[in-house]
């Protein structure tokens, strides 16, 4: 028994396109009803409201393919967006009808990568999801593929599901695929064996991760990455096994969570943001940021790249260009060259007290390098 899953009170469940559609891309009502049966049954086992589920659903583009006469998933961005526009309405209507059999309402929440990256949007999304859950409504989350660009290739919503798990402080994440577990190789070939537990990277040594399915965009690579960043217990299995997965039974592959769950803010910085520029650090600054948990001061910066504004996320790199951290910068890119190499005390005396502040405060900074492995710069 996987007790962390069995005792979970708030769970994010993600289903890929291949779990929701027929081979020709049309919505499969029977599959959706079966999935909703499992989710509603887990959520209200005794008719109460003690458990909460957030459902992350792919399938908008896939659902729009059949009505538009598209035999295969389109590659053209405009056609993808048109298919999503048609399919999203069909998909949410199907969910509303299916959950209504249990007296449950649904609320559609469409997100983009930009919504996850911008802190104010991130907070608004969290408030919306929390309020829906407070009303007893089942949030149905999907990418806003009708206006998306880069985010359409967001990993078939796997990474989005992991970020939503952080957003709502979920207790567990269930990733549903068209394969019942993670295998050491192609499960259709002899010699491939199911991996029951993943406790760390060593358990994945020698594992060959396959690509995406017939109508999705993700694959095992994106699912393993989602499990890595989720910060909570994760089960990877197929839609037919979702009841067993939610019950904590031996279904699929169980990814053990980290010993200490990172803060939501630092996980947001690490996995939901993209650096809008780069700052190069000298060895002393690398040591201070990575190993001693200090703020980044002007004295440790040796170079600035990119055009960013105060408040933007920027990447911190060592002198060889290796990524070590990311943080929210307190200055515009154009201001920093005049500050580099200076102490905050000198800057305050020469330029004014408003310059006696960090380039990036340690509370707005997440280390991406392994602090147990010194950076090449810090090692000298």
Description:
32% of the residues lie in helices and 17% in strands. It has helices at 3-6, 29-43, 60-65, 77-100, 113-117, 119-134, 158-167, 220-230, 242-246, 264-271, 283-291, 344-351, and strands at residues 10-15, 52-57, 106-111, 138-143, 172-177, 197-198, 234-238, 253-255, 277-281, 301-306, 313-317, 323-328, 365-367. The strands form 2 sheets. It has an 8-stranded mixed sheet with strand order 3-4-2-1-5-7-8-6, with helices on both faces. A 5-stranded mixed sheet has the order 10-9-11-12-13. α2 links the parallel β1 (10-15) and β2. α7 (158-167) packs parallel to α8. The longest helix is centred in the first third of the chain and has 24 residues, at 77-100. The protein is globular, with a radius of gyration of 23 Å. It starts with a helix and ends in a 13-residue tail after the last strand. Residues 211-218 and 373-380 have low confidence and may be disordered.
